[in-house]
Amino acid sequence: MSLKYSGQCLCGEIKYSVDVEPVFMGNCHCKDCQRSSGSAFIPAMVFPEQDVLISGLAKYFDSGVDSGNVHSRGFCPNCGSQLFGKFSNMPGMIGIKAGTLNETSNYVPKLDLYVKSAAHWDFMNPNLPKKQGSAQSE
Ligand SMILES: [Zn+2]
Ligand SMILES: [Zn+2]
Q: How large a percentage of the chain has pLDDT more than 90?
């Protein structure tokens, strides 16, 4: 199995590995990502769920997003690390937070999302395309 996209939570109770390339990689600067991570943005990779092997049981917290969809955020119930995301408008897909990778340099973001709600101290790579809202927005 490829170790390129493998990782774990802080305590090690939850581990994952993926053998395929992500269908999406980008930094989300929405307010919910700021609040849930305690940071400026969440570096997100999205994979087909069937290609992600997970050991350990994440707990999921659901929140509504501005589009009316539901975003379920998966975290380790023991150490609180955020690892996963599932989206009601993307069935069969799972998001993985790149900070949990064993090799974080394997994450290569392609764009910045929800820059309209970014914190003023959130410095972004000026070379990446910017979306005011979701990946589908302007
Ligand atoms: Zn943990
Ligand atoms: Zn977000």
A: 90
